[in-house]
Amino acid sequence: MTDLRQKLERAFNPRTVAVVGDKRALGYLWLNAMKTFQGKVYSVQISPDEIPGIDAMNVPNYFSLLDIPDELDYVVCAVRRDISPSIVADCARKGATAVTLFTSGFAETEQEEGVRLQRELGELARENGLLLIGPNCMGIYNPRLGLRQSPDQPAGEAGNVGFISQSGTHCINFSLLGYVHGVRCSKTVSYGNAEVLDAPDYLEYLTDDPETQVIGMYIEGPKDGRRFFAALRRACRRKPVVVWKGGQTEAGARAIFSHTAALASESRIWDAAMRQAGAVCVDSIEEMVDVVQGLLYIRPGSGRRVGLIAMTGGQSVVIADAFAQAGLDVPLLSAASYEKLASFFNIIGGSYRNPLDAGGTLAMGFRLDNLQRMLDILDEDINVDAIAIETGVAYLVRRGALHSSLLDNLTNLLSEHKERSRKPFLLILQAGNQEKEIAEIRGKFLAKGIATFGSFQQGANALAKVIAYQKNTSEG
Amino acid sequence: MSSVDIIDRAKSEGRTVLTEVESKQILEEAGIPTARAQLAAGRDQAVAAAKKLGFPVVLKVLSPEISHKSDVGGVKLNLRSEEEVGAAFDEIVAAARKAEPKAKVEGVSVQKMASPGVEVIMGMTMDAQFGPVLMFGLGGVFVEVLKDVAFRIVPLEPRDARQMIREIQGFPVLEGVRGQPPADLAALESMLLRLSAFVEEHPEIAELDLNPVFAYKDGALAVDARIVLS
Fold first, then answer.
1. pTM
2. Is the pLDDT of residue A1 over 80?
3. CA B169, B170, B176, B181: dihedral to nearest 10 degrees?
């Protein structure tokens, strides 16, 4: 184990935390975030205006990091930028493992003073072997230990998704939005200006982290593209990595002599690098959450032929459109399937080519026995590689089924189908005007391991990306 | 003259663009098959080179300042006799001087006329983030208008070469359409891998075009080549 890896292991799993410069104006953001932390929390604050608030939270406060009678694994520094070099120097003197600089106003300002101060911090940290995270970032989140970046993040439960983000907002939002879509974080880091540690360092750490099964990344631009590429290629050979690229970096202007150079736009090269490394690309936080959920919940499979079930004619048309537009095939079923369907399918106001337009046969969702038969038929069909269904749950809710046994039975039926079937399976759960109720129901489906998406397009896109990932991986 | 000598000479002359003859020599040394070209400074030399290579031949203007050779009337194809070569030499030099009066015309390159194949383009450029990258695409209109090309970061692994060839929209053309035999994909893959190793060994190269490469049923050949130093 390298020295860096050992230190990162300590920083991501600290026993002690110190918060420097938390204040009332911030709502004591950091000390509130650390309330769930299972190790020891210390505060450093010299302002007499701020100390009573800290005392009221029962956090021991000191005037200097050097006064704390304990070893320090992780420090969060929230002081003014001009004071931050002295705090980083104290971290070094104290022998702290890592410091997150929440403080901003450095290189991101593109002003001389900020750039100079950041370089100074970097030199201090590097000389002393101190891990410096940031500046201008939210640092580390480890929900298992209750180590958080924000007081509203979930704590106590260990997830299996790592997230590495240049932006603090996206990092926190991923943990929050992911949570309500069945995506639980193992460890995340918001790394900001990346003065000392950059994306490849965190990527290498999470690649080797046994707790982390899938890695998500938000990145605007790595400082060293070749190093990032090498780390990404290695990571993708161990576990899925989903990359969300933000912004465009400025291309260096120079004379171009060749066709090759003329065609090599920044976005083309980025896309090529991602494909070559084996990463899955997404364009938004919603798509990030969808695709990560798909990678976690949809059983692996690389076939592109999808069997579909919807409840009405209009729904059947657009579910087929959505999956076809995502590059998947919606084939005719086998003769054997059509024979079986003919024995019970109500073709008045319905049809069963593919999609199965099944509202009539399922009594708009109330007849689960027929849903079971349809799922079994699609599962056995040799023309079908994956199954996606929309069963009109919002309609059932409108008809008063929210707390009936019907939804529990549906959940159990789908969960048992998923366990039995070898084919990738997903549920489309359109909320319509029942957002609150559907959110509650979605939680139940997800708790049973059923991949659940809010729209046809989201489900189709997630399935297509999971299948493409599986296919690429199996090609070796 | 070895690669190192050619590059050193260009540098000492303050040139960043290597001529076709120089570029092909360097590529041959790296194991990349090219339609070898000989420099002919005068008419007689051009005729002698053609006789040695065997007819038919191609003559192209040789000037560091002229990059779009056919635009200035600087390319003559399918020359079948000493007389045709001699006349072509005079016409090329006159046309080039007329179109680009300030260009230094060193003469012409003489090469054996390659038998036609499927035109593809291979190239390399330096990306600001990822360093050297390779490009592959179909030549001619496919690259000029449709920009139907694939990129990969150097170094390429065999899988990368395989995938980038299959990634372009026009891939079916390489599999053989309208009775054309399929192109030798293994030869194209091996060419890309050699190119990757070559640019890795030569960080002083900023840009490179092999345009066109003729892909045959058996093998592939870089018909024109240009190397730009940083």
1. 0.94
2. no
3. -130
